[in-house]
Specification:
- The chain has two domains: 52 residues, N-terminal domain of TfIIb, CATH 2.20.25; 45 residues.
- It contains two helices and seven strands.
- The longest helix is centred in the middle third of the chain and has 14 residues.
- The chain is 20% helix and 33% strand.
C-alpha cells in the first residue's frame, strides 16, 4: 500500500503543489505538507492520530501504589504508557533515568537522551 503523501497534493486555496515539511509538537515530529504561497498545512493522518493518542494519555491521571522493595520504594508504570513508548520506536530497555525536578515532582526518561 502506498502512502498518501507519496502522491502530489495541491493546496485547496491556491491550487499549487504542497511541499513536505516537519512540524514539532510536544516532542513529536509530525510529517506535513505546506503551501509555500498561503502557508496552509496538511498533517499526515497517521501522525495526527498518534499525536491525539498521546494527548489522551497525557491528560489521563494514573493512580499507582508505592511499594517497598528491599531498601527502596517502587511504583509501577501503567501498561498503556509503556506500550505507547514502545510503539514510538524509541529505545526501551530495562533502565530509565529518574530526576528530582522539585519538592513534589519526579521525571522518568526512557531511552537515550536527545541532544
Amino acid at each position: 500500500m502506498s502512502d498518501i503523501f507519496s502522491n502530489t497534493i495541491l493546496c485547496g486555496k491556491c491550487n499549487l503543489k504542497m511541499k513536505p515539511v516537519s512540524i514539532e509538537r510536544n516532542g513529536f515530529v509530525l510529517r506535513a505538507l505546506q503551501c509555500e504561497k498561503c502557508g496552509e498545512k496538511i498533517i499526515h493522518p497517521d501522525d495526527e492520530a498518534e499525536y491525539q493518542r498521546f494527548q489522551q494519555l497525557k491528560n489521563k491521571q494514573f493512580h499507582v501504589k508505592m511499594r517497598i522493595v528491599g531498601n527502596s520504594y517502587a511504583v509501577s508504570i501503567p501498561k498503556e504508557i509503556v506500550e505507547f513508548i514502545k510503539q514510538q520506536e524509541r529505545i526501551m530497555d530495562d533502565f530509565v533515568r529518574i530526576a528530582f525536578n522539585d519538592a513534589r515532582k519526579l521525571s522518568l526518561m526512557f531511552g537515550e537522551e536527545e541532544n
